[in-house]
Amino acid sequence: MSYKISVIGAGSWGSALAQILSDNKHQVLMYDVDKNIVNEINSEHTNKSKFEDAKLNDDIKATSDLAKVVNFGDLILLAVPTAVIRIVLGKINKVIEEPKLFVNVAKGIEPETFKRVSEIVSEEIAESKRKGYVVLTGPSHAEEVVLGMLTLVTAASNNLDDAKLVQKIFSNKENFRVYTSTDLIGAELCGSLKNVIALASGMAYALNFGDNSKAALITRGLVEIKRIVLALGGKMETVYGLSGVGDLIVTCTSFHSRNFQAGIKIAQGKNLKQTLSEITMVVEGARTAVAAHQIIKEYKISAPIIEGVYEIVYKHKDVKKAIANLMARSLKSE
Question: How far apart are CA 275 and CA 91, in angstroms?
């Protein structure tokens, strides 16, 4: 069965998933505020600011008319940064005519409120205009997905039927396989918090740390993620699944990861503003580090790596000193 899909955001991830959906024989209409990107997708079937070599399918269309795209699809795929998602959702709420299933692929936590995207959607989109909510998350670089490289992810929702529908729509037998989960809290938190650990991984790389330290960072970072997930109501099995350890590994070990790249630049002495100006795509880990720092304090959770990243990025603490402080902590059992 073919579905109509509205993709909000023609960034790297929105474009890559539009390609998957088109390959799966669904009708896709993308939205972006940048008319140059919209025109390029429609005329050249490329998005070169995001993918230098990838070609999008000819049947993928784009528009800058929000009302048109919102009311086109059977479901709405949200592929915009979490920093602007409230604003975008508020605009969607004004033009949406019928209830839709919302599928989100952004990974972040809102500072101050600690809200996950599912909670922001429930606040900004009227209940009468929502059929449900699913997060699609896991170890997945858009640069590989758009080229058809094999990828496995998780569709998580409080409603298993909604997760299964998204699984059916996005999965194919060639290169994109979707599992389901009902641990929405855990999936959203894991996908967000791993970006903070990826910043630390980039810093370690810039300081020429080896494989031993990389493995240690991923392992102990996972422990900190687990502590936060469990404290906020998520499940242990999610931490050890695709949206947890899977996403953590891929984000901490690849130059496709913008958070990893940002960590490198920060360790090289660049401040956050300089770092973000040199990376053309969104670095969700920087904003999530603020929310994670606040959560740690609020719930009295031990997360020294995440706290160290926060102090480096926002308190301008020297990276080597932060690492020395981690190593000097009192010895304890694992």
Answer: 30
Catalytic residue, chosen from 100, 107, 115, 194, is: 194
| CA angle at 74 for the pair 190 and 85, rounded to the nearest 5° | 45
Kind plus residue range of the DSSP H or E element containing 311 = helix 304-314
pLDDT tens-digit readout, 294-320: 999 999 999 999 999 999 999 999 999
β-partners of residue 151 are 176
DSSP code of residue 330: P
Select from 27, 18, 43, 33 the least CA-distant residue to 64.
33
**Measured CA distances, 241 to 29, 98, 168, 183, 250 (Å):** 31, 34, 20, 11, 13
**C-alpha to C-alpha distance for 303 and 138, rounded to whole angstroms:** 22
User: Any bridge partners for residue 156, and if so which?
Assistant: 135, 181
Could you give the angle at the alpha carbon of 293 between the alpha carbons of 233 and 298, nearest 5°?
55
Q: What is the pLDDT of residues 258-269, one digit of tens each?
A: 999 999 999 999
Strand pairing category for 75-78 and 130-137: unpaired
Note the residue count of the chain. Answer: 334
Alpha-carbon gap, residue 178 to 230, rounded angstroms: 24
Alpha-carbon distances, residue 63 vs 9, 163, 217, 286, 298 (angstroms): 10, 27, 43, 30, 43
* Half-sphere CA count of 310, side-chain side, radius 13 A: 18
* Known catalytic membership, residue 194: yes
